[in-house]
Amino acid sequence: MSFTIQAAEEHALPIILFCPASACSFLVALHFRTLIEKGLIPLKDESYLTNGYLDIKLDCIPGLQNFRLKDLTDFIRSTNPNDVMVEFAIEAADRFHKASAIVFNTYDELESDVMNALYSMFPSLYTIGPLPSLLNQTPHNHLESLGSNLWKEDTKCLEWLESKEPGSVVYVNFGSVTVMTPEQLLEIAWGLANCRKPFLWIIRPDLVIGGLFILSSEFENEISNRGLTAS
């Protein structure tokens, strides 16, 4: 969050930023203003979501090879010229150059083109990721229960996955931000049930607007031994 930069400046503290997401997402955020200046965003109207416009290849972000508009973060797909997320990202990006150093949850070989572009823009960058690999280097003590996941991990799916053929399971996960209505959840549920394929569906406790939603016993019977839901 870029407000920490302002707080550090007010207290004359050194500023070191940590980017837990990919270096690629950081680089894209730095160029939102460029995308606006070139007229690529915001979208003119909602028809641009489906008329092939998002397949435009980008040549205005150094370090991104063969990227299309549709490959960027979803909130660039807005028709609102004052979209709050885009404005927030631009405001944050304008402050990034005030940092004395920036630490990334990646490694150079994984995002070499992106990191080379960032090295040319910032004087002090450090790649220390992926963070989960650091857990294996931590001495076994009272901190060993800590992980990089803010949700309690449900590991029952691992044994179930081992019982399936490689490449045979449909994986469904809406991440940590998306929410949906009960009706949308039901539509997805029965779509998975009717696909007749093994599937693993991750359902967060707060995925459904209004609180926890219990899938019917009819659905559970339909997917028995073929589908698994976890949180």
From TrEMBL:
<feature type="transmembrane region" description="Helical">
    <location>
        <begin position="12"/>
        <end position="32"/>
    </location>
</feature>
<dbReference type="Pfam" id="PF00201">
    <property type="entry name" value="UDPGT"/>
</dbReference>
<keyword id="KW-0808">Transferase</keyword>
<keyword id="KW-0328">Glycosyltransferase</keyword>
<comment type="similarity">
    <text>Belongs to the UDP-glycosyltransferase family.</text>
</comment>
<keyword id="KW-1133">Transmembrane helix</keyword>
<dbReference type="InterPro" id="IPR002213">
    <property type="entry name" value="UDP_glucos_trans"/>
</dbReference>
<protein>
    <submittedName>
        <fullName>Putative 7-deoxyloganetin glucosyltransferase</fullName>
        <ecNumber>2.4.1.324</ecNumber>
    </submittedName>
</protein>
<keyword id="KW-0812">Transmembrane</keyword>
<dbReference type="GO" id="GO:0008194">
    <property type="term" value="F:UDP-glycosyltransferase activity"/>
</dbReference>
<keyword id="KW-0472">Membrane</keyword>
